[in-house]
Predict the 3D structure of the following.
Amino acid sequence: MIGYLGVDVGSVSTNIVLINEDNQVLENLYLRTQGQPIRTVQQGLKKLAQHLPISTVIKGVGTTGSARHLSAVMVGADVVKNEITAHAVAASQQVPGVQTVLEIGGQDSKIIILRNGVVADFAMNTVCAAGTGSFLDQQASRLNTPIEEFGTLALKSTTPVRIAGRCAVFAESDMIHKQQMGFELPDIVAGLCEALVRNYLNNVGKGKEILGPVVFQGGVAANVGMRKAFEKELGLEVIIPQNYDVMGAMGAALLAKEAVAKGQPTKFKGFGIADVNFAVGSFECDGCPNMCEVVEINEEAITIARWGDRCGKWANALVREQSKIS
Amino acid sequence: MSVKVGIPRALLYYYYYPLWKDFFESLGCEVVLSDKSNKGILDSGIKNTVDEACLPVKLAFGHVKNLADKPVDYIFIPRLVSVAYKEYICPKFLGFPDMARQNIVGLPAVIDTTISFMRKRHNVDQAYKQLGKKFSGNPIKVRQAYHKGLRALAKYNQLLLKGHLPEEAMSIMYDRSAKASQVKPCGDLNIAIIGHPYNIYDPYISMNIIKRLQSMGVVVVTPDHLSEDEVRHQAGRLPKKLFWTLGQRMIGAGYHYAESEDIDGIIHIAAFGCGPDSMTGELIERNIRGSTKLPFLNLTLDEHTGEAGVITRLEAFLDMVRWKNSPKKQFIS
Amino acid sequence: MKVTFPHMGYLYVCVKGLLEYLDIEVILPPPTSKRTLTLGTKYGPEFACMPLKLNLGNMIEASELGADTLIMIGGCGPCRFGYYAQVEYAILKDLGYHYNMVVLEPPDKHISELTTRIRKITGNKSWVQVIKAIRFAYQKSRAVDEVELMSFKIRPRELVLGETDRALAKAIKEIDNAASPQQLQLALLRSKDIMNSVAIDPNRPVIKIALIGEIYTLLDPFSNLNIERHLGRLGVEVDRSIYLSEWINDHLFMGLLKGIRSTKEYCQSAAPFLNHFVGGHGLETIGSVSVYAKRGYHGAIQLFPFTCMPEIVAQSILPKVGDALAMPVMTLIVDEHSGEAGMITRLEAFVDLLTRKREFKAN
């Protein structure tokens, strides 16, 4: 069996996806990052290795997400891509002809506009991250509702309440206020979904030409209340793709497949890295007033990467050392 | 002991520093620049400015504070009312000397000469003559100093038109060890960066965007590579004359580059809370999205902007442009 | 031709008066509401100031009612307001609202620029008629200001809560309905009677607070979340640093009319702290604090829309002004996300502070 790995390490969740030559998802893993990207990726690879037949050949690996560089040096990636490109690639593979991708993740949201199968425009949230997954999680627990039921609760509403405020803190205080006025829970939840959609479109979607087919992906796409609010506001059908919650990782896998298509061998270090000791340390460089926090990652006590220095002094020093060793 | 005049490395330093430097030095002063922008300078600026001010003003406060601690005898913060006929820079430039005076503790003597071109060029010449009197009783010497400054400025503007970026141009002029490199940076993409000079050229608050793009194989052009005439001609397409000089330059450049055959994309850099940016950005974006379909990215900078977020957006933007240009629609060329 | 223009508090009373005096059909935008703001926020630039968004919402709503000609005031900087009309027009055009836009602004080169624009609206009416209409509109603005001024005095002293607001609405309607200068004189008498019929307790002690800052947020109750009403209910007598008629005189008549309060006094009083024009009303804001301090006011509240440039300059200098004059100054910034509850809390706290300060002085 031949496969390609995609690893998406975000602030909230880490996804690992394995696709085959026909771009079908064979395995997909969803893990909570919990601020420990290295351990999470190692656990994920361990789990995956237990599932797979011994004969599996990994021909390519791609990483994406906010910890893409860290995970890339760990696993030995063939391609490192930002999450916008990864999401766009996955969406156009799953829904050919897609023209708009709405993506709401744990702490970030983006919109991608595609025309003729190519990204024509995109935007990410600017001054505010209200309305992303973390905020919904928080509100669900405050209302004593499991997040999985949040969406179905919203669907029960007949007259959504208008929730004001772009900022999460203000939206929350407005919700509490509306509860104290005696509004029904489903109406409040539906109102919250509508407020989040409104804010998303005013902030991220401002000035963008939103045409169908529209794909809604990212963790928040599981919430049917959000989907309905989008459909109501846009007046378009909103498609939730099959692998909506691992689209970033899937895109990374697709990109990896493309990267090695030219015949070069993969840089993948193998599933063994799950048991290797990676240690991350950081120090404050006092070479100039910027006081950069330089991060270095060590594999079995050998430094394999450094970053965080604006001037490149430390990162470049490492490159020189490595070229000496080899 | 010569008198030390401090000039903050902020705001219109990027447009007029050669003039100021040669003018003061010819009058026997020692010109002291504030340090290059860094975290410490921005932090002290944020501490000393009202929260609602825009990022470049906060940074400029930091530079003034940095000079105050050096110490210097004078700090030169001219009140830049207007540098072109019937145009302004922006309200905060009008009030900047007063804002600094009322908020920064331990400020040395401030020179806040009013530079106003509102009606006549003559007013500006007068302002420099008045300023020169502070340092020399000899009017001829003052006039010579002013003309020397103007010559330096003309030379500097020539260097910019040749495609040098401000820092390069200044090192060619003032750093004897630096050779005038005529080597054009090469790359597979030409991207125009549109923004206020003090945002796009400041390596710290712009997240070093120009160098970063160059290292990603991009040839960067900015509004300052275009002549005044071209910029004004393009901005003249607006139904009403724009009364912000820097906004004119940005809109004119936006229109010019949107129609250039060899430009692959435009990045507009706005500062959060900047009044003119909120209007000119809208007009540039509407023009580009409406007519040319050129890839366009809007980046908003503020003191909370994380480097990671900017890098992600830049990488995605370059991917988008290269993807669009590649014949086989492959992501990796 | 169905003419409309954006709202700014009671501005509609005099502009409508002017146009109807010349037999021009006017379509008023519906009163500014949450919907107006939602529309403006949706289509306006994210970081533009709130007045632009509200104006844009007004224009969209007026177009829905069939308006086809738009009157806007322009300007020549450095504040953004001078370029509003152009940006709004570009947005409306892209959205498919087709307006004929007439921008009234100081001529760039020759007075004829302005007169041709006025002609676009007034058609073949004689200049004498037009001037009469302008004078009539100005009289209306004076009448509106008079009853508003009465409401500032009456509101903190009313015996029945909300009585003043009901009377004010009625009084404004009287003025609005007057169709000629003669009718206006009678209407003003009637509206003053209406205001005087509100039962008050003349001996109630009041705190006096000056509202200073940016013109739109001072004049437009929707944008300032009805600050005058809230302060009145807290027993505060307010005054505004600028009135509609003064703004018309200063901006449209180039300060030609003498004998009414002009902003010149403010500019002179600002000198020790700021002695240069900074656009908008920034300089006036600084100067007005010392004018009100001299007049025995207890405190001042600076109001402006988020990101307003001239007022930010003023805001950064105001603390020094307040200290020098021993006058507490509070700054309130409004935008589309401002909530009334948060503002009332701040107002109550500020009024408490002033009350305690006054009692402390008395003992």
In short: Chain B has a mean pLDDT of 89.
